[in-house]
Amino acid sequence: MERLDPSVHPDPDGASTRAAQYTDRLVKLQTTWWKRLLPVQAPYRYNVRRLRLGRTLDVGCGIGRLLVALPPGSVGVDHNRDFVEHARGLGLPAYATDEFPDTPEAKAESFDSILLAHVIEHVDEGTSDEILQTFLPYVRRGGAVHFITPQEWGYRSDPTHVRFTDFDSLHALARRNGLAVERTFSYPFPRWMGRLFKYNEFNVLSRRPAS
User: Regarding beta strands 111-117 and 56-59, do their DSSP bridges make them parallel or antiparallel, or are they unpaired?
Assistant: First the structure.
């Protein structure tokens, strides 16, 4: 599969996803007038609902765009405290990553799945492994880990993206961390639309061994 050259990037220095300005950017994008009129998030929320992930740990939950669609008992974590405060303001259960281990929700194997949506493209390979190894113990044996990353146009649209992560990259990430790839698909349109539609996404559903 063709790889996108990460050097062709709008911001080689990479803005930080921790910055308050990044929160403001996402909130502004989410609340533009046409997004308030049209249910633009509905297809993506439907996508996570239909996967039947159960009680989910939404790692890198951002401002809660998908957390709001997850089953009761699901929890979001993010390293950006402004994201967390915004999600909490919507009534969503969200924690900063450094405070989560001390919460009542942080129990071994207490979640059915992990959702990593638009996270992996923001970090290098080693950091993506560290994220998985940090949060995998909270997922039950046989539980799922679902990855979502942007395709070409979406990747280029955000200056904080540092690594283009296609199906091959996500498969490798899963297998390095002992996960079995169960399902691979492009959403909402076929793979070839990734260069033409900004919001087309790679989806890879993987699973922890049952024993």
Answer: parallel
